């Protein structure tokens, strides 16, 4: 049986189906193996298309990885931004707890709940591969939420808030990757995110005068 061929431009329905199969296969392999260990040939074989079809639709492995990440991030970012917009539309300003919840809850609810492994994988890839995608897909949302935290924490320096938000995201990624502490029974993702919410609220809301790590004098 001859291998399938790349669809012609005159067949948009077939093209859409083929592209979706390639994206599904690529997402699965990128999650399991990572970017470097996944070849376009392996993706084409998993999708049951020929190599030319993968190149026809996406051009390169890096472009295909970007398309997978975009498809993954879009529903999460949409849900986050909608939740934040609803909070900001109210007469009273949102609390830190409400903003944290708007950011974290989409990871365990809605259509994007299964995408968290890919998000964790993305942040673990080499900077040359991950950073452009992170800035494009995540940068605008990071900015919106940073500004919301600034409104909820007027006594904390904005740069300090961004660092705290940065640390919160790092904790989120570690939690998504490991599922919980070492030598501790694993919790459900929902339970883990609830614990992360409490941790993040405490860190974000800490007093600007809280003692930090003191440098040793030499």
List the helices and strands and how they pair.
Elements: H1 12-33, H2 40-47, H3 51-58, H4 61-88, H5 96-104, H6 116-123, H7 127-152, H8 158-178, H9 189-205
Oligomer: single chain
The number of helical elements comes to 9
Largest sheet descriptor: none
C-alpha geometry: elongated
> How many structural units, i.e. domains?
2
CATH architecture of the largest domain: Orthogonal Bundle
SSE string, helices as H and strands as E:
HHHHHHHHH
CATH homologous superfamily label of the largest domain:
Tetracycline Repressor, domain 2
The low-confidence runs, each spanning 5 or more residues with pLDDT under 50, are: 1-13
Protein structure class: mainly alpha
CATH topology of the largest domain: Tetracycline Repressor, domain 2
Mean pLDDT: 84
Rg to the nearest angstrom?
Answer: 21 Å
Keywords:
disordered N terminus; Arc Repressor Mutant, subunit A; 2 domains; mainly alpha; Tetracycline Repressor, domain 2; 9 helices; 218 residues
């Amino acid at each position: 049986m001859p291998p399938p061929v790349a669809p012609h431009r005159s067949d948009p329905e077939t093209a859409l189906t083929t592209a979706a199969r390639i994206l599904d296969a690529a997402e699965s392999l990128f999650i399991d193996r990572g970017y470097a260990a996944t070849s376009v040939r392996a993706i084409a074989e998993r999708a049951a298309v020929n190599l030319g079809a993968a190149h026809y639709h996406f051009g390169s492995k890096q472009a295909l990885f970007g398309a997978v990440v975009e498809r993954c991030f879009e529903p999460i970012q949409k849900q986050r931004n909608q939740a934040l917009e609803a909070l900001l539309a109210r007469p009273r300003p949102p609390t830190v707890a409400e903003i944290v919840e708007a950011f974290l809850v989409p990871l365990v609810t809605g259509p994007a709940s299964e995408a968290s492994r890919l998000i964790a994988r993305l942040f673990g890839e080499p900077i040359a591969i991950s950073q452009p995608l992170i800035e494009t897909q995540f940068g605008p949302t990071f900015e919106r939420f940073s500004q919301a935290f600034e409104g909820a924490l007027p006594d904390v320096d904005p740069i300090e808030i961004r660092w705290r938000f940065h640390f919160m995201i790092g904790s989120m990624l570690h939690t998504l990757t490991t599922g919980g502490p070492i030598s501790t029974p694993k919790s459900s993702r929902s339970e883990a995110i609830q614990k992360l919410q409490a941790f993040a609220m405490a860190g974000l809301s800490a007093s600007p005068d809280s003692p930090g790590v003191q440098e040793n004098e030499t």
